[in-house]
Amino acid sequence: MLDLRPEFWLQLAAYATMIAVAYFGLRQTVAVISSRLGGLEAQVTVQNIKIDKLEDLFIKSARYEERQASADQHIVLIRKEIDELKHGQGYVNGPRLANAAIP
Hints:
mainly alpha; 1 helix; 0% strand; rod-shaped
């Protein structure tokens, strides 16, 4: 038989209220965590874009350094040819650096 005492109904109402508060509180907590994770995902995406830009910058810098080193080697060879010409060697008497391969 069903208990009709007022204390039973008051206790049942208190449990129902506690369950409802816990449910809606948990739901709110999950919503807050979900929104924070969404914000973190956006920040990670922005950081990945920045990393990609830095990677491109490093590659461009390395290519520039490589071109600069090649130009420096070419200038050294030209200076050697000029020195040889100043000392009477080079195109007429000595070895031809003009045909030397540029490393």
